[in-house]
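Task 17 of the worksheet. Students: predict the tertiary structure of the chain below and write it out as structure tokens. Keep your answer in the requested format; marks are given for formatting as well as content.
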Amino acid sequence: MKARAAVFRGKGVALNIEEVEIDNPHPNEVLVKTVACGVCHSDLHYMQGSILGPPPPTIPGHEPAGIVEAVGSAVRSVAVGDHVIACTSLFCGRCKQCQQGRPYLCVDRQACQRKEGDAPRVSQDGKPVEQFADLSGFCEKMLVHETAVVTIDDDIPLESAALVGCAVTTGVGAALNTAKVRPGSTVAVFGAGGIGISIIQGARIAGAKQIIAIDLVPEKLEIACKFGATHTILGGPDSPDGDPVRAVKKLSRGGVDYAFDAVGMTQLSQQCFYSLAPRGLAIIVGAIPPGQKLELDPAHFYVEKSITGCYMGSNRFHIDALDYLDLYKQDRLDLDSMISERIRLEDINEAFKLMEGGKVTRSVITFD
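Model answer:
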């Protein structure tokens, strides 16, 4: 079957809307009609070469929601007509990480992909078109492994639910799962984009008494307050707030219990670490480009500070996604207000320009 998609063909080249061919589902695959898809910074990082991914041509988009159109013969977890959201955290269910309850760290994702010699899931003129992160949300239809999707209630707007696929799962999960933010604790979040806003919401849900948002864009700090930030710091060399580390320590009276790098910059990761109180924890959530080095003053380890990575909010997607949507229904997690722009597939390149300019929290593609 044919579908329109935004195809990436090389670094520095705008995405092009093209027609592609979608194969029929194999036994463990699900065909989804895409209704909405968030535009994530990781898509941009991949297209800029900052993070690894399959060679082009590819279809980006890994924050999708839609309706199941067909299922393979072995699929039992979803059915035709189900509303679903998808996540990049595919898992085999059999490796050591999966068996120990960490499916997001699955070491055999290849078990969820088609085998060598099989027809490609997506093709063009008989040649394969790869899916970035095993999804292809910038396409009218997606063919994915069944572990990538989870059924949600039909009354949840799909354009809001789509954000749970990446931004919310990563950010809220970083606070609740990775850091395990304690009630009454203090938190600093460096970067107030889609991931940062989600971390702020996770920290608020966890009961943090102080949540400090740091960003270079004043408008983003205003938005952060609407989602739960109690204090803000404007970064940058000309900022009236001065050095962010000193400002965080002043506001928190000696340092925060948790600090999150929501962007993925070594400078911010350092600032997170140095902003901590003794026994504090810094969490690197954003993707730092390969090849960069992070240097830290070892003296800080003597007061038992820690630093850790975070992959996709340490998620168990089939459990966490439904929990987050319950929080949404309870008005404790705000998904609707995270959407800054609703765009057509044809406007995808403009959405990336807005993202680079720091103009949006999240753009969402809505398909006809």
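Marker's comment: The longest strand covers residues 29-39. The chain has two domains: 2-165+334-366, 168-311.
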